[in-house]
């Protein structure tokens, strides 16, 4: 199974990045043998639409599942349209999070768990 | 002539100055229109109390996709700078609230699958109060993009010899849209560190746009002298200083115009308007 997981760095020992659209890095991981490709996220500093762009990016990698901390409505809609299963609530070391997911400790979410612009690092305002 | 009133910082007295200038101008026999471009929270009507016509809806054109014609080439998503349209899997998603209405997606679509439909984001009202013509706009709550509504307010405003444009606070797109075609820009500030910080941003904006401008310092006798020093050191003319007068605050809180109920302030605003006339002439 090929998954994408949001990470703060380009290796399996990095932490899970709690943001989806503006995570530092996507690790595209083959769960059978933990071989992976690290994709630096070009959307970190986008003014808007980061979730949508990131969703397109991981969809282009052919993954079936996304593991992350939080996922907003636009990213959720785009990932769902691409037929990708979204798993939120992941944290800690990437390698552990993948193992926990394989052990069935996380469930897929049918809806976004945070509001738009969660990953911008401020709430409300203009 | 078009005079725009802007500030950088919010709450410095833009609307107080704008409504009073419009009032004294119209009472001295000029044909004047007051145009409230602060479409996120217009409040000029509280003081001018205009009779308004019905609402005219304002919208932007957003893409509508005919899925039966779509060949999922992705060109629409590639041209869009705001991720407002994406082709993903076997679907095309449109995020109307991100769309800036440029129409690029429908132009590049090779299969003619994209048409444009009106997405309402607000409304415009025009009217009058005595001899003064009036226009304002209302951005719908939850909408993020005010410039199309501002553009519509300015287009709908009745023609007059003098237009007083009440701009929103800040120095971003809504302000640029409000002030871009004015003959003179009046920057209202207050002599506080916050007021000065944002005045500097507004001055930079005015200079970038090559607009003639001057400053009004409101509540001029509180705070510090830094704003006066800054203006002096940068060749910026202070056209009027309005004192921190309880009588102005009282008339404001009753929804009255200081220039109407306080004779001394009527003369102050007449003088200010005369000074702007000379500079924008």
Any overview of this molecule?
The complex is a heterodimer of chains A (126) and B (281). The relative contact order of chain A is 0.22. Chain A has a single domain, classed as Dinitrogenase iron-molybdenum cofactor biosynthesis domain (Nucleotidyltransferase, domain 5). Chain A contains 3 helices and 5 strands; from the N terminus they run E-E-E-H-E-H-E-H. Chain A is an alpha/beta fold and 126 residues long. The model of chain A has no long low-confidence stretch (mean pLDDT 90). Chain A is globular. In chain A, strands 3-2-1-4-5 form a 5-stranded mixed β-sheet, with helices on both faces. Chain B is an alpha/beta fold. Chain B folds into 2 domains: 2-57 and 122-280, Rossmann fold, CATH 3.40.50.300; 67-112, 2-Layer Sandwich (Alpha-Beta Plaits). Chain B contains 11 helices and 12 strands. In chain B, strands 1, 2, 3, 4, 7, 8, 9, 10, 11 and 12 form a 10-stranded mixed β-sheet that branches. A two-stranded antiparallel ribbon of chain B has the order 5-6. In chain B, a hairpin with a 2-residue loop joins strand 7 (114-129) and strand 8. In chain B, helix 1 crosses helix 11. Chain B is elongated. The chains are: A alpha/beta (126), B alpha/beta (281). The interface between A and B is medium-sized, with 15 and 11 residues.
Question: Can you give keywords for this protein?
Answer:
heterodimer, A: 126 residues, alpha/beta, Nucleotidyltransferase, domain 5, five-stranded mixed beta sheet, 3 helices, 5 strands, globular, B: 281 residues, Rossmann fold, Alpha-Beta Plaits, ten-stranded mixed beta sheet, two-stranded antiparallel ribbon, 11 helices, 12 strands, elongated
C-alpha Rg of chain B (nearest Å): 22 Å
The number of distinct helices of chain A, counting runs of at least 4 residues, comes to 3
Distance between the termini of chain B: 8 Å
CATH class of the largest domain in chain B: Alpha Beta
Distance between the amino and carboxyl termini of chain A: 41 Å
The biggest sheet of chain A amounts to: 5 strands, mixed
CATH topology assignment of the largest domain in chain B: Rossmann fold
CATH superfamily of chain A: Dinitrogenase iron-molybdenum cofactor biosynthesis domain
Number of domains of chain A: 1
- Total DSSP helices of chain B: 11
- The helix content of chain A, as a percent range, equals 10-25%
Helical/strand content category of chain B: alpha/beta
Helical content band of chain B: 25-40%
Number of domains of chain B: 2
Briefly note the structural class of the backbone of chain A.
alpha/beta
Shape category of chain A = globular
Question: For the record, what CATH class of chain A applies?
Answer: Alpha Beta
Write the CATH fold name of chain A: Nucleotidyltransferase, domain 5
